[in-house]
Design a protein that fits this description.
By secondary structure, this protein is an alpha+beta fold. It is built from eleven helices and 20 strands. It folds into three domains: 177 residues, Jelly Rolls; 93 residues, Phosphomannose Isomerase, domain 2; 86 residues, Jelly Rolls (Sandwich). The protein has an eight-stranded antiparallel β-sheet with strand order 4-1-18-17-20-15-14-13, with no helix packed on it. Strands 2, 3, 5, 7, 8, 9, 10 and 11 form an eight-stranded antiparallel β-sheet that branches. Its EC number is 5.3.1.8.
């Protein structure tokens, strides 16, 4: 069943035809006109109430169809009370998203009970982000030796902390940057502002090596988008990743992250719980974020999500949750491909290329829901590849 899906308009999205989301919407809907002034940030595919997908042929919400036909969901029907356990998205990012993390199920339940207006559901929100274009993000805490080096070469950073805080961080047996990061996030706005102004001015007049060592391109981007924001200094605490198309990063509960730029396919457990503390005009919950974070230091290479190419065409991204799995299908020219059967219902989106199928129109932007155990065959009669992403639930 082909779906009509909801675009989300957020300030950080790419505007007009620069947005991957907008181009997908226009490619699949002749009546859709791209507005050059609108930031088309996200395309939602699923049953989340903030952006429900509709069955094109009948106009029925997908959630209503699933409630009437639970057997069509396969193993997914028992995971989230009859709702689709995952939310599938495409994101087009121009400006940085907030410094954020997502709660596990236990914390999500507590937050929903205490702050129901702020945290509207009780589910966790592990995420998988797969690059469609070059993608930049901050993910997880840097190795401690890197943070120590930045404290040495960026005096505007070290001046934010008291001698006592710095001594505790550099003391024997210190294994995380928890105390230092907590102190940063609770530093006065006046102190952050003054030191950011000094830092940017100093780096603007510095030689190339100093600018590169101090990550001037990042500090300048973030300070331009969010002037004098404490989150600008987070670049010295969090790993800076640059992913190429097809590369991915998995974000479990409690892992701090911020998307900076690029276009991605994203899949997550069906939740909208976000705890923010920087680079955002939205509500900040610094105390909750600092208490829930995983302060483990990760070498950047360990954060890249492992994947496996099963048949030369389908790439499966390995995630440690049952809520969702994602495959990238890249069908070469003049080949026919039969998708592996899934034990749950699934949603696919055509990203690039055109082809033929008995099941659906194979063209960019088309989003299709398939029942469990569906047979999906795609023929590529052209001399260009077809790229499709498929989201589903997993047995293990």
């Amino acid at each position: 069943m082909e779906l009509k899906c909801v675009p989300q308009i957020y300030d950080w999205g790419k505007k007009g035809e620069a947005s991957f989301v907008a181009r997908l919407l226009a490619a699949n809907n002749k009546d859709f006109k791209i507005d050059p002034n609108i930031p088309y940030a996200e395309l939602w595919m699923g049953t989340h109430p903030n952006g429900e997908s509709i069955i094109k042929e009948t106009g029925e919400p997908l959630i209503d169809y699933l409630k009437k036909n639970p057997a069509k969901m396969g193993i997914a029907q028992n995971m989230l009370g009859g709702d689709l356990p995952f939310l599938f998205k495409v994101l087009s990012i121009q400006k940085a998203l907030s410094i954020q993390a997502h709660p596990d199920k236990e914390l999500a339940k507590k937050l929903n009970e205490v702050y129901p207006d702020r945290y509207k559901d009780k589910n966790h929100k592990p995420e998988l982000a797969i690059a469609l274009t070059d993608f930049e993000c901050l993910v997880g805490f840097r190795p401690l030796n890197e943070i120590i080096r930045f404290l040495d070469i960026v005096p505007e950073l070290s001046r934010l902390f008291s001698r006592d805080v710095l001594d505790k961080f550099s003391g024997e047996g210190q294994t995380t940057a928890a105390g230092l990061f907590n102190a940063l996030m609770n530093t006065s706005e006046q102190k952050i502002r003054a030191n950011l102004i000094e830092l940017v001015e100093r780096l603007e007049g510095s030689v190339r090596k100093v600018r590169e060592d101090c990550l001037y391109h990042l500090i300048n981007k973030l300070n331009t988008e969010f002037p004098h924001d404490v989150g600008c200094f987070a670049i010295y605490f969090l790993n800076y990743l640059k992913l190429k198309p097809g590369e991915a990063v998995f974000l479990p509960a409690g892992l701090p992250h911020a998307y900076l730029s690029g276009d991605i396919v994203e899949c997550m457990a069906c939740s909208d719980n976000v705890v923010r503390a920087g680079l955002t005009p939205k509500l900040r919950d610094v105390r909750t974020l600092c208490n829930m974070l995983d302060y483990t230091s990760f070498p950047p290479s360990t954060l890249i999500c492992k994947s496996k190419k099963t048949d030369g065409i389908s790439t499966i991204y390995k995630t440690p949750v049952k809520d969702f799995g994602v495959s990238m299908i890249d069908i070469p020219p003049f080949q026919t491909y039969l998708f592996p059967r899934q034990h749950s219902c699934s949603i696919i989106i055509v990203i690039d290329g055109k082809g033929d199928s008995m099941s659906f129109k194979v063209e960019p932007g088309n989003v299709v829901f398939f029942d469990t155990e569906a047979d999906i065959e795609v023929i590529n009669p052209n001399n260009e590849s077809i790229k499709i992403f498929q989201a589903y639930c997993k047995l293990d």
